Amino acid sequence: MSTMSMGAYDEDEHERREKKASRVDADFDEARTEYRGTVEYDSGESAQDLLDQFEEIKSE
User: Fold this and answer.
1) What is the pTM of this model?
2) Average pLDDT over residues 13-39
3) Distance (Å, whole) CA 53 – CA 44
4) SS3 of the chain: helix, strand, coil, percent, to 5
């Protein structure tokens, strides 16, 4: 029975992790999902209005 100190190098563990990290998961659908449409938004305020509001909140 061999014992290792904390932090000792374990070559078997290193190889196991290397194999796991280098494995590629190819079980996904190769076709990309394509979304079509439009996005609209209205921020409602100008940048200066937002900065003024921020300064007001900070001063409270």
Assistant:
1) 0.28
2) 78
3) 13
4) 40, 0, 60
